[in-house]
Amino acid sequence: MALGAAKKSNSSTPSESLTNKAYKHLEELIVTLRLAPGAVLSETMLAEQLQIGRTPIREALQRLSRESLVTIIPRKAILVTDINPRKQLLLLEVRREIERLMARSGARRSTAEERAELFEIAEGMDKAAEEDDGIAFMRHDNRLNILVAEACHNEYASRAVGLMHGLSRRFWYVHFKEAADLPLCARLHAKLARGIAEGDEDRAAKASDALLDYVEDFTRATVDMGGRR
Q1: Which of 24, 55, 80 is the last residue of a domain?
Q2: CATH (domain of 49)
Q3: Which segment of 10-14, 55-59, 89-93 scores lowest on mean pLDDT?
Q4: Do 72 and 106 reside in the same domain of the chain?
Q5: Against a cut of 0.90, is the pTM above it?
Q6: What is the distance between the alpha carbons of residues 59 and 50, in angstroms, rounded to a whole number?
Q7: Which among 47, 48, 42 has a CA at the least distance from the CA of 75?
Q8: DSSP letter string over 114-151?
């Protein structure tokens, strides 16, 4: 109770920070299946679990709803959405076009600092490929998603792709052990990062298409298996 009362006296900046913290926690719990598809959530339960007030939790859930990771049924329930491989294929149609644009734009507009970090990620992906390290891959993949969205310096493209990243990451987490060639996928990510970092628009666009070709093949393999985990 005292914690909730203290939050009321905070300025908007701390409140926004708490909302972002709640979002990151909840997104990770959903993507890694600790909050499983079909799970019924409540603001009160989540606030107690994360030790964050209900207002930031509510705002985080609204964002997750926009990203199709939860469904909010007013005055009834909050549900973690199901995983549908066929819908994932539709999502990939959109991702392909936006991510090719972002790759080209990133190669053209990225700063020296962003390019240096892209080279770091490429090296990390190469190491993850050599060691077949799924945890390192997931970490570098998340960093790359965020950085490419920033490096393209196009807020409309980055907003659009941001709505899809959580769904894509959760789908990968569910199926990669049974259907993925992780070393190949890591190397494809490394080529994308280097293409952007080296400022080569055509190379970056081709690397983006090659990566999405692989991701589409991976997704279709799960459809052929009936989407079973």
Answers
A1: 80
A2: 1.10.10.10
A3: 10-14
A4: no
A5: no
A6: 14
A7: 42
A8: HHHHHHHHHHHHHHHHHHT-HHHHHHHHHHHHHHHHHH
Dihedral, CA atoms, 132, 222, 218, 88, nearest 10 degrees?
-120
Please identify which residue in the block is written with the tokens 């490429």.
122
pLDDT digits (tens, 9 = 90+) for 164-202: 989 998 998 888 888 889 999 999 999 999 999 999 999
Say yes or no: 127 and 217 in one domain. Answer: yes
Decide which of 46, 80, 114 is a domain's last residue: 80
Strands 40-41 and 70-73: unpaired
Residue numbers of the domain that contains 151? 85-224
Q: Distance of alpha carbon 128 from its chain centroid, rounded?
A: 18
Question: Distance between alpha carbon 196 and the CA centroid of its chain, in Å?
Answer: 19
The answer to whether 31 and 166 are in contact (CB under 8 A) is: yes
Same domain, 74 and 168: no
